[in-house]
Design brief:
378 residues, alpha/beta, Rossmann fold, 2 domains, six-stranded parallel sheet
Length: 378
């Protein structure tokens, strides 16, 4: 392989969320190592500064609100992606690697049969059953058949990347997709930059004068922060509970906090520029989701030296916390264990070693992405 590679990242959008952070970290890491990088955004939604050295194209077409227009919109996105690849290669030469990341990319880029494309999935296609009992399982089974058929049509015979072993098993097992190859590569984290940010003081971190447990993420049903709130109240521990995020469940969570007698001990802090400073002051991070692709916040928690506790949900938490401490994962059918686990991990937190976090370092992850080029050359 020549030293400098040409990499194009085709991504749905770069707004709030884990995928945007992952792709920008990857882009900046590749640029820092002297590679040529392009970004092609399938939707015009950007919430982060973009690297100035990266080649850039943004699709200006708006996603339609009417469902009957979605098929036409996806065709427009396919055309944009095809033109972006052509323009990028005209300026920088043939691409060594093209990563198509995100749900829209996975639906719209497969008609483009470029030999260097790897499709990148960062989230579960099935998640957990949304209803309990037989009806919930029947609906999940129907979803498995429908999603499986669609993904088989899109990804059979193509090269695929996923961010956890659990997602790989879901794709090839439950969904019966038969890719040409499947590669598990964790999300990249700039460990030194995160730790430096964690050492800073922010208005949000300076307010925390008492010990606290923290949860970070969108305040939506899938994240189930109500579980964390109920478990914290039942644990009997001292200190506060702080949630970092925003979303449609915010008012319901405030009402639940009042009902559980947590007045003065519960706070919701909106997403802000540097949540690492606040996370680093916490005694414990807790994730209570029904589904995670990998869970960036679990990785970030270990990086800044804060023990993490999570539901053992599909699919990423086990990749991160499995084998660290038996108390760190709670089965979804044993949510009743959460209060005791919170109490236990606050009383006797587990040790966090360098080996636990180095596997997520940006350099290690970039090496794995670049290794895909050798695979495509074979």
């Amino acid at each position: 392989m020549k030293d400098s590679k040409t990499v194009l990242l085709i991504v749905d959008r770069l707004d709030k969320g884990g995928l945007a952070h992952v792709l920008l970290t990857l882009a900046c890491g590749l640029l820092a190592r002297g590679h040529r990088v392009g970004l092609a955004l399938l939707e015009n939604s950007v919430a982060y500064p973009l690297p100035e050295a990266a080649w850039l194209r943004i699709n200006e077409a708006e996603r339609p609100s009417r469902r009957w227009r979605h098929a036409a919109f996806r065709r427009e996105v396919t055309g944009f992606a095809r033109q972006a690849i052509s323009d990028f290669e005209t300026e920088h030469g043939k691409a060594d690697l093209i990563i198509a990341a995100g749900e829209l990319a996975i639906r719209c880029v497969p008609p483009i049969h470029h030999p260097r494309i790897v499709f990148s999935s960062h989230s579960s296609q099935l998640q957990a059953a949304k209803m309990s009992g037989l009806i919930g399982q029947l609906r999940l089974g129907f979803k498995r058949l429908r999603r499986g058929w669609r993904l088989q049509r899109l990804l059979n015979g193509r090269h695929v990347h996923v961010v956890s072993d659990g997602l790989a098993k879901e794709l090839t097992g439950s969904l019966k997709v038969r890719p040409a190859s499947v590669h598990v590569i964790y999300n990249p984290f700039d460990i030194d930059a995160i730790r430096e940010a964690a050492r800073q003081s922010t208005p949000e971190s300076l307010k925390r004068l008492r010990p606290f447990v923290i949860g970070i993420g969108l305040l939506t049903k899938n994240k189930h922060f109500s579980r964390l709130l109920e478990a914290f109240a039942a644990s009997g521990v001292d200190g506060d509970l702080v949630l970092v995020g925003q979303g449609g469940d915010e008012e319901a969570l405030w009402q639940l906090a009042r009902a559980k007698g947590l007045d003065g001990r519960f706070e919701i802090v909106p997403f802000h520029h540097n949540h690492y400073a606040l996370l680093a002051k916490a005694s414990l991070l807790v994730v209570t989701s029904d589904s995670e692709g990998l869970s960036n916040v679990l990785c970030e928690s270990l990086i800044v030296g804060v023990p993490a506790l999570s539901t053992d949900c599909p699919h990423g938490p086990r990749d991160i916390l499995g084998g660290i401490d038996e108390r760190a994962l709670v089965p979804l059918d044993r949510i009743d264990l959460l209060p005791e686990r919170i109490h236990s991990l606050l009383d006797k937190p587990y040790d966090i070693t360098d080996a636990m976090v180095e596997r997520f370092s940006v350099d290690k992850v970039i090496d794995q992405y670049l290794a895909l080029i050798d695979m495509l050359d074979e």
